[in-house]
Amino acid sequence: MGLLEKPKQQQKLQEFQAIILAGYGSSNRLYPITEDDNIPKALLPVANKPLISYTLDWLEKAGITDAFVLTQSMGNAQQKIAGYLARGYQGNVHCNLIGVDEDFGTADAIRSISDRITTDFIVLPCDLHCEMIPREFLDHHRINNPTMTGLFYEPPKGEKGSGKEDELAQYIGIDTAESRLVHIADCDSSEDGDLSLRMSLLWRFPRVKFHVNLLDAHVYIFQHWVLDLIKAKEKISSIRQDLVPLIVKCQYQRKLVENEDMDAALEDPLDTALSLSTVYDEFDENLLNEHDPYRSNFKSNIKVNTVIYRDGYCGRANTIAKYSEMNRLASKQGLSIRRVAETAEVTQKSQIGNDSLVGEYTKIAEKSSVKRSIIGAHCVIGKNVKIANSIIMDHVVLEDFVKLDGCIVCNNAKVLEGSSLTKCEVAGGYIVERKTEENGQKLVGFREAI
């Protein structure tokens, strides 16, 4: 287990601690751009900034300055992220980088650092880019004081990257009167696609609106006591698949609360206060409901709230398509960002579109064109090169007369003279031979197993 700590500027009383899940474990959906020869998921460039920098900026805007960054201890991901946090990150979030077993689920990873979490905590992925003002999300949690608050978002209509490789659609049931999340399940959880509900849910929450177009941002705020539940129940391995559904069901299932030894959730402080009142006329609902197996006076203090963001962009770069879309939106026309770095050398006869970016110390020779694309730092682009709808990472060489359309070319790769690639991903360090023509391929070098 490794640890990198950035010195705190001053000691502050923290309301929340953040846990950033920095792409540990499998990243198959981002293959081959997260191969060892390239860079870890957390450092993938989005508009020439590391992906995790957007998450850290979001936390800083929220006023959260204490974060644990969890990444896999195997491979070189931990070392590379450590280098960025020590030398490249210029923000004010104090980051503790910790390596965890790559086989750990998200809840397992949190369990492994539970003794270091001393406040309520927010869990979020390293691949999130959200335009929502973070204080709106935190204030909702502060006002309602639920056990958990989750962030969901509605993707824009016609959003690219909504194909088969995306997450499964979910049935999201929300009691709109209280913004309570009362049901969450994958839409394919039953063969016929029918939605099955417990009567206890309907008695407790009779007015529920179900959504199938919402996506889970995987951003959750938990009360500190949830750590005790995670530590006590080793069967809870995943936050999304194990912990969240359990907490949601405990809002209305008495037996589940009792079986999980969460009896404290049955105690209602209001009932206790009223029982001590000299003017309150206690009414025993048990007399009405003692013969009804579904409708009872069960009250759980467990409360799960939701915030739904619809007013701007919110998304995760957890697939190739979504990663490309995030780059497109981060560099679109009209944004007040520098299009061509001061140190870049672009000949006058080359054309750089106003929806493209060119990184530091990159050289672009004459009669080349760049449209709707992002080019990283220290790249060498030859003559008569045509680049469209593509992402070119750092230290890439594109020789003369190369054509790229809809491609991702990773660090230190070379595309030799006269090659034409369409919708291809070129792995880090890979060399594309002269006059290669490929469409829709993943170009990866063979490596022997160690």
TrEMBL record:
UniProt-listed PANTHER family: TRANSLATION INITIATION FACTOR EIF-2B SUBUNIT GAMMA
Domain of life of the source: Eukaryota
Keyword DNA-binding appears in the UniProt entry: no
GO biological process: cytoplasmic translational initiation
InterPro entries: eIF2B_gamma, LbH_EIF2B3/5, NTP_transferase_dom, Nucleotide-diphossugar_trans
Organism: Umbelopsis ramanniana AG
One cellular component term from this protein's GO annotations in UniProt: eukaryotic translation initiation factor 2B complex
Annotated Nucleotidyl transferase domain residues: 18-152
Domain EIF2B subunit epsilon/gamma LbH: 342-426
The protein's name: Translation initiation factor eIF2B subunit gamma
GO MF annotation terms: guanyl-nucleotide exchange factor activity; translation initiation factor activity
Similarity field: Belongs to the eIF-2B gamma/epsilon subunits family.
Annotated Gene3D superfamilies: Hexapeptide repeat proteins (2.160.10.10), Spore Coat Polysaccharide Biosynthesis Protein SpsA, Chain A (3.90.550.10)
Function: Acts as a component of the translation initiation factor 2B (eIF2B) complex, which catalyzes the exchange of GDP for GTP on the eukaryotic initiation factor 2 (eIF2) complex gamma subunit. Its guanine nucleotide exchange factor activity is repressed when bound to eIF2 complex phosphorylated on the alpha subunit, thereby limiting the amount of methionyl-initiator methionine tRNA available to the ribosome and consequently global translation is repressed.
Quaternary organization: Component of the translation initiation factor 2B (eIF2B) complex which is a heterodecamer of two sets of five different subunits: alpha, beta, gamma, delta and epsilon. Subunits alpha, beta and delta comprise a regulatory subcomplex and subunits epsilon and gamma comprise a catalytic subcomplex. Within the complex, the hexameric regulatory complex resides at the center, with the two heterodimeric catalytic subcomplexes bound on opposite sides.
Key words, A-Z: Cytoplasm, Initiation factor, Protein biosynthesis
Location relative to the cell: Cytoplasm, Cytosol
